[in-house]
């Protein structure tokens, strides 16, 4: 186990550089014990955990971001401090992404990080790259609930024990169990993201047996939606502090769940979290959480050596952004004062390109991109990586959701509700006709996919739609997307477009009639496609159950829909289903596509798997 002892000696040089700013930290760190607790003057020892999470590649200081050079200064100026990160750090902005996380790891090394629990987006480069980065890291990657399918072995260390000023602190890591659905699943094939509760119970027992004074979980779980951090805290109250990430939650004073203190530092480098733990005679007597914001961080002089590293990385990045990645014979106009109105009210070639790239990269049926996310042109001639970054400047990432035709119609009505607004949709995989002059809610006239009319009242048929993380949470007023089941998350849109351009000739990109505005058609109404009657599917009436955004259906109901027979196998470890043609499938209970909930009638399989087998 590497790096199990604090790197205090390695930080002494940095400490000398920032000694003048050390006193500034006392304004933000607790220096007194709560009522009834042992005062520090009577021998208590304070251990400070400094923490970050969800930086998403924001490692360079700005007017909103606390840079790695300043984080290093805060760490060096804080006695008995341990610096940790709770994930989603090495992927995001080009500064981190274009080096596949290497820049992030180098800066984390320099800043003095000790532990890192990877977030779902830290797997975006694939497990092999993350393992490579582990080999270059001077900190430990901890993930107690991540194992290899082949032999059940741990991929990274489960835990580590450090001693600081006579106090032993046990750290263990937890990763988000739904990671295969919120990263590229091919990059984590062969891995099991297990129950964080079960892993926490196991690790806390081990650390208690080892006799540590303090137990700290570093986790990428979150307190919204699945709320895994809360579940862990409720189930394992012996955890003293849970440093968390994933939900981008700003916790000014932490969040108590029973006797467990959960701490998060927002997102995007806006804060550095501070947790002070007071230990007296081997027992934890006080725990307090606070945040250092960007303004407070100005009291700490950035470490010059790390600033120099950042400057060199940015210079190297400039060379990368100048690399030619494609060619366009014509200018694909995006957003500027002259072309904004057209982009945000009609089909645009650049919109078709981006939507096509998203749909292709994510393997979805449809794609919808808000025009406001398209920020510049692709000029005629050679196209560089920098050009792509200028077009997709927000670094949104792809989100795949399930959607019905009725919901798609609703989304399109939102999209065309305000001409000139950034919500106007650019689409792929389907086309639609609308009348901008019609009343609200009545503008969309038809929606077709492969020549088939999609009924605006169809609430049963399911398609997959790739959108971006901004509209997925209701951005640009796409409220219809908020509660849709999420099937997967992918890379940033600039990454997807680069991948698409590497595999496709884009010289013929243009307007294809995907979007027709009747009010703008001087020749009158276009021919509206003949409506094709909706054909019911036997699974339409089967009730679905959603788990982490994945739709499941009861296996018994599937069998009934197709006149098939369901039974247990001899040892009750698998379910056997045989259709009328005598074809047989075995579903192993507890594995990826099935799980048991009480009885044979409660065995579920994924809806998509059922469609594949019985359509």
What does this structure look like?
The structure is a single chain. With 615 residues, the protein is of the alpha/beta class. The chain has three domains: 41-317, Metallo-dependent phosphatases (Purple Acid Phosphatase, chain A, domain 2); 324-520, 5'-Nucleotidase, C-terminal domain (5'-nucleotidase,  domain 2, Alpha-Beta Complex), CATH 3.90.780; 545-614, Copper Amine Oxidase, Chain A, domain 1. It has 17 helices and 32 strands. The chain has a six-stranded mixed β-sheet with strand order 4-3-2-1-13-14. The protein has a six-stranded mixed β-sheet with strand order 6-7-9-10-12-11, with helices on one face. The protein has a five-stranded mixed β-sheet with strand order 19-16-23-18-24. A hairpin with a 2-residue loop joins strand 6 (159-164) and strand 7. The longest helix is centred in the middle third of the chain and has 18 residues, at 304-321. The radius of gyration is 27 Å and the shape is globular. It starts with 7 loop residues before the first helix and ends with a helix. The model is unreliable at 1-41, 522-536 and 590-601 (pLDDT under 50).
Instruction: Using the coordinates shown, work out and report the CATH topology of the largest domain.
Output: Purple Acid Phosphatase, chain A, domain 2
CATH architecture of the largest domain: 4-Layer Sandwich
Mean of pLDDT: 84
| Lateral strand order in the biggest sheet | 4-3-2-1-13-14
The figure for the number of domains is: 3
Please state the CA-atom Rg, rounded to the nearest Å.
27 Å
How far is the N terminus from the C terminus? 51 Å
CATH class bucket of the largest domain: Alpha Beta
The portion of residues forming beta strands comes to 25-35%
Outline type: globular
Contiguous uncertain segments of 5+ residues? 1-41, 522-536, 590-601
Number of alpha- plus pi-helical segments: 17
Total number of beta strands: 32
Main structural class: alpha/beta
Helix content: 25-40%
Largest sheet: 6 strands, mixed
Give the full name of the CATH homologous superfamily of the largest domain: Metallo-dependent phosphatases
């Amino acid at each position: 186990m590497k790096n199990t002892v604090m790197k205090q000696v390695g930080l002494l040089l940095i400490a000398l550089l920032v000694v003048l700013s050390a006193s500034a930290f006392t304004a933000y760190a607790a220096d007194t014990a709560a009522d009834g607790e042992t005062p520090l003057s009577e021998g208590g020892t304070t251990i400070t955990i400094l923490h970050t999470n969800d930086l998403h590649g924001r490692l360079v200081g700005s007017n909103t971001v606390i840079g790695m050079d300043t984080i290093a200064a805060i760490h060096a100026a804080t006695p008995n401090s341990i610096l940790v990160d709770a994930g989603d750090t090495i992927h995001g902005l080009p500064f981190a992404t274009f080096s596949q996380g290497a820049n992030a790891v180098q800066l984390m090394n320099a800043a003095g990080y000790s532990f890192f629990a990877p977030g779902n987006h830290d797997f975006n480069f694939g497990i092999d790259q993350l393992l490579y980065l582990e080999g270059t890291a001077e900190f430990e990657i901890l993930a107690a609930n991540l194992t290899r399918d082949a032999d059940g072995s741990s991929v990274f260390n489960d835990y580590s024990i450090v001693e600081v000023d006579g106090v032993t602190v046990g750290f263990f890591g937890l990763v988000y169990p739904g990671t295969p659905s919120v990263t590229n699943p091919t990059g984590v094939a062969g891995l099991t993201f297990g129950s964080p509760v079960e892993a926490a119970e196991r690790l806390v027992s081990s650390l208690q047996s080892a006799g540590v004074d303090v137990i700290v979980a570093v986790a990428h779980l979150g307190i919204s939606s699945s709320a895994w951090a809360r579940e862990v805290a409720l189930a394992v109250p012996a955890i003293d502090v849970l440093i968390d990430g994933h939900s981008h939650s700003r916790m000014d004073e932490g969040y108590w769940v029973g006797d467990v203190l959960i701490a998060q530092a927002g997102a995007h480098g806006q804060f550095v979290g501070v947790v002070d733990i007071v230990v007296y005679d081997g027992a934890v007597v006080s725990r307090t959480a606070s945040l250092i914001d960007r303004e407070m961080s100005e009291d700490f002089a950035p470490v010059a050596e790390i600033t120099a590293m950042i400057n060199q990385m940015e210079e190297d990045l400039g060379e990368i952004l100048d690399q030619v990645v494609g060619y366009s014979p014509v200018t694909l106009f995006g957003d500027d004062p002259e072309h904004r109105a057209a982009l945000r009210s009609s089909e645009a070639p650049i919109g078709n390109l981006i939507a096509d790239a998203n749909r292709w990269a994510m393997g979805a049926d449809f794609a919808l991109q808000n025009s406001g996310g398209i920020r510049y042109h692709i000029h005629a001639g050679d196209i560089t990586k920098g050009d792509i970054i200028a077009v997709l400047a927000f670094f949104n990432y792809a989100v795949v959701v399930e959607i019905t035709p009725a919901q798609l119609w609703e989304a399109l009505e939102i999209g065309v509700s305000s001409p000139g607004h950034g919500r106007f949709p650019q689409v792929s995989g389907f086309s639609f006709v609308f009348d901008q002059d019609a009343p609200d809610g009545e503008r969309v006239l038809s929606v077709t996919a492969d020549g088939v009319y999609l009924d605006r009242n169809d609430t049963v048929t399911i398609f997959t739609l790739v959108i971006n993380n901004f509209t997925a949470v209701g951005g640009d007023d796409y409220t219809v997307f908020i509660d849709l089941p999420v099937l997967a998350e992918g890379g940033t849109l600039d990454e997807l477009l680069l991948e698409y351009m590497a595999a496709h000739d884009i010289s013929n990109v243009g307007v294809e009639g995907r979007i027709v505005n009747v009010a703008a058609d001087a020749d009158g109404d276009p021919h509206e496609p003949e409506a094709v009657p909706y054909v019911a599917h036997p699974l339409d009436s089967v009730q679905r159950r959603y788990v982490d955004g994945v739709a499941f259906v009861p296996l018994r109901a599937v069998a009934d829909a197709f006149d098939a027979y369901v039974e247990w196998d001899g040892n009750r470890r698998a379910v056997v289903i045989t259709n009328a043609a005598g074809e047989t499938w075995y579903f192993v209970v507890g594995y990826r596509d099935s799980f048991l909930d009480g009885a044979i009638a409660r065995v579920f399989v994924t809806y998509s798997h059922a469609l594949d087998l019985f359509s």
